[in-house]
Amino acid sequence: MDISFEKLWKISKELQLSLSLDESLCKILTALTAGDGFAFNRAIIFLKEDTRLIPKVWIGPKTIDEAYKVWKEISSQPHALEDLLSKCSRREYLKSLPTISIELNINDFNPDFLNNGPTKIDKSDLVPKTLRSVLEYLPFVLVPLKTESELLGLIIADNMFNKKAITDIDIKHLELYAALASNVIERANLFEEVKKKEKALEESYRKLQEAQKKVISLEKMAATGELSSTFAHELRNPV
Q1: What is the value of pTM for the model shown?
Q2: Are the C-beta atoms of 188 and 21 separated by less than 8 Å?
Q3: Which of 36, 8, 233, 43 is nearest to 145 (CA)?
Q4: Could you report the per-residue pLDDT of 116-154, keeping only the tens digit for each?
Q5: Which of 46, 1, 19, 23 is closest to 159 using CA atoms?
Q6: Is there a contact between 107 and 115 (Cβ–Cβ < 8 Å)?
Q7: What is the chain's alpha carbon radius of gyration, rounded to the nearest angstrom?
Q8: Cβ atoms within 10 Å of 172's Cβ, excluding its own
Q9: What CA–CA distance (Å, rounded) separates 201 from 199?
């Protein structure tokens, strides 16, 4: 993988366009696996929930037959990185992306792997058994995603099919990319929180309007002498 800083800047620009978490995760892995990007054969991203690491998106072939099929399609109809990233904005495409059905725990990993930068893992005894059974290949690179105060998740990427080596230069580039990806995920999480709060505020406003309508209705009934027959019902059914 020989990716220029100019290419990193272009990838950064594309990632910054995304506010949706799903779209952001898709773009992060697409840039990692695209031939015009970091060119890893496959990658998966996990997000942290308490002490669990939940798999979210997998991009790349899972078998050698799938790999040959992908390479054949790419050779016959090449796509620019920008075109591949643009697919992530389509809901249908996001729904079609595979994942895996395992969960990891942060306690299964050496703390240094999660607290430091990207690490090349080339020994099976360093890999949790559940993850080893899915990847079935070494080496791979483990990329922690974190803010200054917390772990957000991690990315695992490898070159299972073309056997390309993961070099020290790759690790340095991934260190920059991890910081970028972490920033994008953190921003998407904040945006999701804002949307949830906005929805809760809208619901509170709706209930307030209903309460106001009920007050106006009671005032009208009081003015017309109808209040006595409905007062008990209103008390039994408060807003």
Answers
A1: 0.80
A2: yes
A3: 43
A4: 999 999 999 998 988 988 888 999 999 999 998 899 999
A5: 1
A6: no
A7: 25
A8: 12
A9: 5
Q: At what angle do helices 227-236 and 168-223 cross, to 10 degrees?
A: 150
- Tens digits of per-residue pLDDT, 35-85? 889 999 999 999 999 999 999 999 999 888 888 887 777 766 767 888 999
Q: What are the residues whose beta carbons fall under 8 Å from the beta carbon of 214, sequence distance 6 or more? A: 234, 239
Q: Which two tokens stand for residue 154?
A: 């991690």
Q: What are phi and psi of 136, to 5 degrees?
A: 55, 30
Contacts of 230 (CB under 8 A, 6+ apart): 218, 221
CB-count burial class (<10 Å; 0-12, 13-18, 19+) for 120: middle
Q: Token pair of 220, please?
A: 């009208």
Side-chain-side CA neighbours of residue 196 (13 Å)? 7
The structure tokens listed for 61 are: 């072939």
Which of left, alpha, beta for 123 (phi over 0: left; psi -120 to 50: alpha)?
Answer: beta
Helices 5-15, 21-33: inter-axial angle, 10-degree rounding: 160
105-to-46, 119, 131 alpha-carbon distances in Å: 10, 18, 10
Q: Do the beta carbons of residue 151 and residue 54 sit within 8 Å? A: no
